[in-house]
Each structure stands twice: as structure tokens, then as C-alpha cells.
Design goal:
single chain; alpha/beta; Rossmann fold; 8-stranded mixed sheet; 9 helices; 8 strands; 20% strand
Length: 257
Amino acid sequence: MGAQSGRDQTVRIGAAELFVTTWGTSPAEIVLLHDGLGSIAQFGSFPAALHEATGKSVMAYDRPGHGQSTPRPTGPWPTDWLSVEAARLNLVLDELASPQPTLIGHSDGGSIALLHAAAHPESINRIIAIASHSYVEEICFDKIAGMVSDSRVWIEALKPFHGDSSALFRAWSGVWTSTEFRSWDIRPLLRSVAAPSLIVQGSKDEYATSAMIAETVNAIGGNASAAVVDNGRHLLPQRNESEVVQLVASFLTKPTN
């Protein structure tokens, strides 16, 4: 079983075998999307805490190459990999989620959630993007380039969570540090996001400046709001769990316009 009594299953979506954990008995009302080197296991107690605080069924899944899902990558992901994963998310929601779920995405998972919400504006109830990216900032590129130079440490640290941590790290870091990906920018697409949106960032995020949260909110427009976690770093769901759970629970109780 998953952390905190979650219910585990494996689901085939196209060519992928996805490992899924659900907290609650009903189809997922909240769908969690992990970060670029993340997995269900790395969320720790966060999904169970969300389920307890909101009373809603929460589902998380390992994207291909992450955690217990396959296939594993064989090289750097393509520059459009976030859009590819947003399209896969649509299939996952059709298979496993309730109508119009809330999406909560962390980092790259937040970007995937935003891309999905932009492409399918009527399919989402609300969206919470935590430490997400809407374009490539220099601080993010430089941070990941530094991780590449120290890759052995990162690959070793990721081993307990992934079937092939080396392949995952090289796929993720390879695309983020590629010349082609430097121009990645989804801000023009975000005006199509119709669902109420909360963009959350830590004030000390190692991968982003304060411009990222402001630019993302501005790109979405009047249905988006910002929340800054004081002294929070990039791993907000894990290191600032109670604050983030409270932000989510409060946001979900606000009436929609």
C-alpha cells in the first residue's frame, strides 16, 4: 500500500504503465503531479494530509520513468516533453478522475497542470501550481547545470525512489540544459486557463526569482492569484507541508465567480 494507507494500482495509458496511488474511495477529486525528479513516494505524507484536510479523494501517479512507472527514458526528453505529459494527463483524468477535478502540480508538475488547463479550459475545477515554471529563468538553468556537474550525488540520492535514477536524471537535466529548451515559454498559452488558479512559490526558491510567480499570474489573468511562502524553498509540499495544505484547503473553499 502507498504512504498513509493509500490504495495502489497500475494503469496502462498508451505505451506507459503508470503506478497510481489514491487516498479515498471515490474517483479522484484532486490530482497531484510531482516535480521533475519526483515520484509518489517523494511526496511523503503530503497527499494523505491533503485528503484529511479537504475530505476529498486525492490521486497521484508516477510519470513514465519516475518511481515505479515505465517506460524508462533512453536519452534526454524532447523539448516538448511537458506538453507530451499534459496530453498524457488528459488520458489519465479520463480513466481515473471525477469530472472537473482540481489539479495540484509541483514544479514541472505544475507546468504540466497549467498546460493541461490551457488546452482543456472547461475540464478543470481549480488549479494550484506550486513552484511551477512558465518560462526558463537563468537561475533555473544555472541551478540545473550545477546539478549536472555533481550528477553522481544526485543520482545516488534518487536511487531509493526510481527504477533507474541515472536515466531519469540524465533525461530531465539533459532537456533543461539544452540550447533548444532555453526558449521554452508557455506564458502566451496561459490566457486560456479558465479555472480559478493559485500560483504558490517560496520566497527562497532555488530555481526561480520573484519574477516567475508574478509573470505566471499575469499571464493567466484575473482568475489567478499568488501566494508566497515566507522562507520557503523549492520543495514546498515536503518541507512546508502544513502551510501548503492550509493554502490548498482555504483556496478550495473560496466561492468561484
